[in-house]
């Protein structure tokens, strides 16, 4: 895969259950269920021994115990799992600075530039599995591919303790027989609609064609068609990126529908623009983060033709990124907008001066953004907020506001 991008997706095996087995070696080799033991308890994690009986995450405990009556039930210890997760992520971060946590037990790792240190991707992946095992006594499964979505599919193919590489050049062959539901962002509704048109596999999707997909699903259709060709430009966005700033909101009630989502993004784009102005920065890269009620988190990013600190441009970019998300039938608990690739306006102005010696005054929109930001800075955020943002979703009324880079990997549903 030399020359191509190499992305790892790493996911711990039966994470909560494996931690419990590590803590109590008497459980080794036994079917273990972590979860609430009460009548309404749910299985959080099932050891691979328990899975042979059909037990799995999110199953009612009563059902799991019917399938496997001799299973050992262990009450969850979330603080312990969070601590182990931090140890696992510390190992990941030794392999590359580009680590993007997806949940408590999984991450993407972009191996760009690490070849001299770790060798080719497969060797790096083996070293990573060995380091995780040596330092945490736990196994993980790794997928290797040139793009994110293929790496994620690959990591799940040979669990537990699996290592699966989708080599450059074999993507189309691999995708041909894959059910479309395995593609990220292809939900049950989309599957149903496509099934009615005879599309079941990713190969079918490719043959169905870009035009037909765009006609049926708009920008999301285009996105799916690109995935069917193995194309996925999504970058690995590191959790601790020093050079980005953003805002995200978690909503008490899931947000449904594009108009409402766009209003949420406007509030976030505005706050991001204010901070850019406050710091005298403009950014070229805009990133959308969105998490649905099932805790599936997606990020999309794009690069603008020129750096900006204008909330309308940032909002516009975020809305275009939103078009590539399957919003059909999904409620969203979190949205966030962040920006990166900063330029200082002075540097940009100097570049413009070089290009056009008779320099023009700064565009009106830049001056306007500076004034709006200054007013909000003095009088608080509600003072001058774009009317389209809608009062019910103004910042401060939507739940906790957090910065976009959590210092810990995001947690899965418990
Ligand atoms: P997963 O990685 O989805 O599952 P897993 O690690 O248990 O098993 P696998 O080997 O298939 O990866 O989730 C990680 C942890 O998140 C899991 O151990 C427990 C928790 N979790 C829940 O609490 N509820 C859920 O519904 C799921 C899917 C996971
Ligand atoms: Mg796992
Ligand atoms: Mg996982």
TrEMBL record:
Enzyme Commission number(s): 2.7.7.7
Cofactor(s) of this protein: Mg(2+)
CDD domains: PolY_Pol_IV_kappa (cd03586)
The reaction(s) this protein catalyses: DNA(n) + a 2'-deoxyribonucleoside 5'-triphosphate = DNA(n+1) + diphosphate
Pfam families: IMS (PF00817), IMS_C (PF11799), IMS_HHH (PF11798)
UniProt biased composition (Basic and acidic residues): 405-414
Subcellular location: Cytoplasm
Record-listed Mg(2+) binding positions: 11, 105
Domain of life: Bacteria
Region described as Disordered: spans on this chain: 379-414
Residue ranges annotated for the UmuC domain, each copy included: 7-187
Active-site residues (renumbered): 106
Residues under site feature: Substrate discrimination: 16
Primary location: cytoplasm
Keywords: Cytoplasm, DNA damage, DNA repair, DNA replication, DNA-binding, DNA-directed DNA polymerase, Magnesium, Metal-binding, Mutator protein, Nucleotidyltransferase, Transferase
Cofactor note: Binds 2 magnesium ions per subunit.
UniProt keyword Magnesium present: yes
A molecular function GO annotation: DNA-directed DNA polymerase activity
Task performed by this protein: Poorly processive, error-prone DNA polymerase involved in untargeted mutagenesis. Copies undamaged DNA at stalled replication forks, which arise in vivo from mismatched or misaligned primer ends. These misaligned primers can be extended by PolIV. Exhibits no 3'-5' exonuclease (proofreading) activity. May be involved in translesional synthesis, in conjunction with the beta clamp from PolIII.
PANTHER family, A to Z: DNA POLYMERASE KAPPA, DNA REPAIR POLYMERASE UMUC / TRANSFERASE FAMILY MEMBER
Entry's family note: Belongs to the DNA polymerase type-Y family.
HAMAP family listed in its UniProt record: DNApol_IV (MF_01113)
Assembly, per entry: Monomer.
Name of the protein described by the UniProt record: DNA polymerase IV
Encoding gene, per UniProt annotation: dinB
């Amino acid at each position: 895969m030399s020359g191509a991008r190499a992305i790892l997706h790493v996911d711990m095996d039966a994470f909560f259950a494996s931690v419990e087995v590590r803590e109590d070696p008497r459980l080794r080799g036994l079917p273990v269920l972590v979860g609430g033991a009460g009548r309404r308890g749910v299985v959080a994690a099932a050891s691979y021994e328990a899975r042979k009986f059909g037990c799995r995450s999110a199953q009612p405990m009563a059902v799991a115990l019917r399938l496997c009556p001799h299973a050992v039930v262990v009450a969850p210890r979330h603080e312990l799992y969070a601590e182990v997760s931090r140890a696992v992520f510390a190992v990941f971060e030794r392999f590359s600075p580009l680590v993007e946590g997806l949940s408590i037990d999984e991450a993407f790792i972009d191996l760009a530039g690490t070849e001299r240190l770790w060798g080719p991707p497969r060797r790096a992946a083996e070293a990573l599995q060995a380091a995780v095992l040596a330092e945490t006594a736990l196994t993980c499964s790794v997928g290797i591919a040139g793009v994110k979505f293929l790496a994620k599919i690959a990591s799940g193919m040979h669990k537990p303790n699996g290592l699966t590489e989708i080599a450059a050049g074999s993507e189309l062959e691999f995708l041909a027989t894959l059910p479309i539901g395995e593609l990220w962002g292809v939900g049950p509704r989309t599957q149903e609609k496509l099934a009615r048109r005879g599309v079941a596999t990713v190969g079918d999707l490719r043959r169905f064609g870009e035009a037909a997909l765009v006609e049926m699903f708009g920008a999301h259709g285009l996105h799916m068609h690109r995935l069917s060709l193995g194309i996925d430009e999504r970058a690995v966005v590191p959790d601790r990126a020093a050079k980005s700033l953003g805002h995200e909101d978690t909503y008490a009630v899931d947000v449904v529908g594009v108009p409402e989502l766009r209003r949420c993004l406007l509030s976030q784009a505005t706050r991001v623009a204010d901070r850019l102005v406050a710091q005298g920065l403009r950014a070229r890269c805009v990133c959308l983060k969105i998490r649905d009620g099932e805790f599936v988190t997606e990020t999309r990013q794009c690069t603008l033709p020129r750096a900006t600190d204008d909330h309308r441009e940032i909002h516009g970019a975020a809305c275009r990124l939103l078009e590539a998300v399957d919003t059909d039938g999904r409620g969203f608990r979190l949205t966030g907008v962040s920006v990166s690739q900063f330029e200082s306006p002075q540097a940009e102005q100097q570049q413009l001066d070089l290009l056009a010696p008779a320099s023009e005054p700064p565009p009106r929109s830049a001056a306007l953004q500076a004034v709006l930001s200054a007013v909000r800075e003095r009088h608080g955020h509600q003072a001058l907020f774009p009317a389209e943002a809608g009062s019910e979703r103004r910042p401060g009324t939507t739940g906790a506001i957090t910065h976009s880079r959590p210092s810990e990997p995001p947690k899965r549903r418990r």
